[in-house]
Amino acid sequence: MEGVKVLFGLLSVVCIGFLRGANGQLHGDLRSCPANDVTCNNTHVCILPSVRCDGRNDCGDWEDESNCPTPPPKSGCGGPSVQRGMFDIIHSMNFPYDNYTDQATCKWDIFVPTGYHVKVEFVPIFDIEYDVTGQCRRDAVYIYDTDMNHLVGEYCGSTIPPPMELSSNHAIVTFKSDYSHTGKGFGLHWFAVVPTATTPSATLSTVPPTPASTCNGVIRLDGKSGLIASPGYSLTSSAHYPPSANCGWQIIGPPASKIVLHFDDFMLENSPNCSMDSLSVYDGFDETAPLLGTLCGKYRPGDVISSDRQLFISFFSDGGVEGRGFHITWTTTSTLTTSAVTHTTPVPAEGCDGHPRLLTSASGVVTSPGYDGTSSYLGLQSCQWLITVPQGEVIDIKFTDFEMEWARDCDYDFVAIYDDDFLKAKEMLCGQRLPLDFTSTSHTVLVKFTSDAEVGGVGFNLTYASHPPRRACTSAEYTCKNGLCIPYDLVCNGLWNCFDGDDELICPNNPQCGRPDIQPHLDSHRVVGGREGVEGSWPWQVSVRLTGKHLCGGTLIDPYWVLCAAHCFQSNWRTTEWSVMAGQQELMTSSPHQQLINVSKIITRHDYDDVTSANDVALIKLAQPAKLGRYVNVACLPSVTLPPGEVCYITGFGETLSTCCAGKLKQAAVPLISANKCNLPDWYDGQVLDSMVCAGYENGGADACGGDSGGPLACEIGGHWVVYGITSWGISCADVKNPGVYIQVVNYLKWIQETIAKYS
């Protein structure tokens, strides 16, 4: 992994770091692959044998494309020119992030199994240089049926071409550009479909769980009601739909009726834009009809209602992870009776009908339409709430729940907050991270909510309250829980300077912290690869777990609070899925000393940068306090910086590749390294920021690695162990001139104290 930034775990001569997948999320846990899959040696990704030597980087490090007999031909736009299977996507180079290049020539041959036809559908971004003659003589994409002698169409400009089913199992797509003027290009989904002329027809009132062998086609459903289930559907915990499924259902109700879909159960693999597994609903007979929504994830969608008597549902799964699937009850309602229309036609919520909802009370609640904390919000929503309070007051906004489709620039679903200037948003919010509290500068705030056709989460719930403006505290002051500002040098002086004493809540000079009852075995020399720690000797070390599996380390600094790294939570911010295990010596073995505690809140620095790892700091609030004792206790916070050469200790449960005590709590002695040395050109070449500290050896050997992100770099100062650093990142593991990089906690002491005071 030469030159790749790794967000850490722990301890070995050669370790496994995290891989950043195609969706930008971090994957660090290892899993055994199904019997028929192939395991990538370095990244432990499970792949199908059929994707070996197909020209794609499926393993993440190109291992699956090494030692191939002959490399597959390239399309000219990237990726293989020969496409085989049931479905995939092709696109022009750089799409959709940048323009395609001049003088490009690309070609794809698409083959689906015999007995199927190729169907192609362009994604909603289409930008190819337009020819004023309408003949696309400059830049264009061409679709051919069967061979190059049968041109179906040539396309340019910005009008999205229509979906098209070809007449055979072979299609050819070509793309060319001339020497000037380029655009974003195109993306195109292709998939295998049962030929329309031979589509099976059946009249069904109910549909049992569909076996995989009957799912590669379209089933027609006539009548007034019925059931639809994904192949292999069952409520048992082990049930899941098969990979590479391709299913379709055409529902046709009686004349003068509408179709209502009610989701009894729903659990599909989640992915950005539902690009992996998805269920799509179309308002008509087939996939050429308007798209009502594309669904994935684990949250049960709300009811979907057609505009007429026809509805089409398509379900695709990729070759990877599967979920339990879905179960749908469909019914019809007559459009001839007023009562039926009243009950089944969704009425836009106030504020979502094209007119902002005016809120003038001193406090209140705003939620996404239909919010209940569990179901997904509807797609294609546009809502506005205008909060107005008396002049001279300002408005506090606090989110209590937040989960929406994520994009780096919040291009799809988002909440926007406007303050004073309604032309430019002060905040653009999306994803799963609970937003920071917001305080307006004026007496009027506009909140906007927008969603596209693809559902992305449970939505949001916020509260607002007005009050007279308060003076913002300066950097030299401490913000008390009630908003009062006091000089920071009064914090931890033994006196209650804040009204409720929160300035004395967590202090570096706590005489009880960082003093384990069981002393660690300390090495006076370098320990290559680390050693197992003495049970109970690092009582502040915890395992931070996602859905019950160890993902990161952490440091207990208060019975209610754990210090961790922000990057641990990039892929999931829902507190209900996180827990903390304290007092454990071995991950796979239970202990009478262990304490499993749920998480009530995850707070990260608002200025955390996932590219530079700046401000990679998080605090976890526990739902119940840890019970302190011989095997569970708190570390101290630092108040000073230490010189280079000072020997500290890293601890954690991370990867070791058999060098030592897998799955057990390990320790290694590492000296601190000066920032000047760590930033040398042949070391980290300036990537280590002032808020970070390096620790390790020039020649490698002992380091943090996969599974220890967020854990402590502990240093003994004055007879107390302090959490001097937070395990953050590095290049490879235990490599030459690539020591571990840690967030220097002393730089964040004030933020830690103010945050704990605010949420205690």
What do you see in this structure?
This protein has 760 residues and is mainly β. The two termini are 42 Å apart. The protein is globular, with a radius of gyration of 29 Å. Strand 37 and strand 38 (561-564) form a beta hairpin. The chain folds into five domains: 82-193, Sandwich (Jelly Rolls); 199-344, Spermadhesin, CUB domain (Jelly Rolls, Sandwich), CATH 2.60.120; 357-462, Jelly Rolls (Sandwich), CATH 2.60.120.290; 470-504, Low-density Lipoprotein Receptor; 531-754, Trypsin-like serine proteases (Thrombin, subunit H, Beta Barrel). It has a six-stranded antiparallel β-barrel. A six-stranded antiparallel beta barrel has the order 36-37-38-41-40-39. The protein has a five-stranded mixed sheet with strand order 6-8-13-10-11, with no helix packed on it. 41% of the residues are buried. It is built from three helices and 47 strands. This is MASP-related molecule Type 2. Keywords: Calcium, Disulfide bond, Hydrolase, Metal-binding, Protease, Repeat, Serine protease, Signal. Disulfide bonds join 53-68, 410-430, 473-485, 480-498, 480-507, 492-507, 513-552, 568-636, 678-694, 705-733.
Provide a compact summary of the structure:
It is built from three helices and 47 strands. This is MASP-related molecule Type 2.
CATH architecture of the largest domain: Beta Barrel
Number of domain modules: 5
Average pLDDT metric = 81
For the secondary structure, the number of strands is 47
Shape: globular
Work out the strand percent.
25-35%
Unreliable runs? 1-31, 197-214, 337-345, 524-528
Distance between the termini: 42 Å
Provide the CATH topology of the largest domain: Thrombin, subunit H
Quickly give the structural class. mainly beta
Order of strands across the main sheet: 42-43-44-47-46-45
Which CATH first-tier class of the largest domain would you pick?
A: Mainly Beta
Rg over CA atoms, rounded to whole Å, is 29 Å
Q: How would a crystallographer describe the biggest sheet?
A: 6 strands, antiparallel, barrel
CATH homologous group name of the largest domain = Trypsin-like serine proteases
GO biological process, one term: fertilization
Disulfide bonds: 53-68, 410-430, 473-485, 480-498, 480-507, 492-507, 513-552, 568-636, 678-694, 705-733
Domain CUB: 77-193, 215-333, 352-467
Binding site for Ca(2+) 3: 405, 413, 452
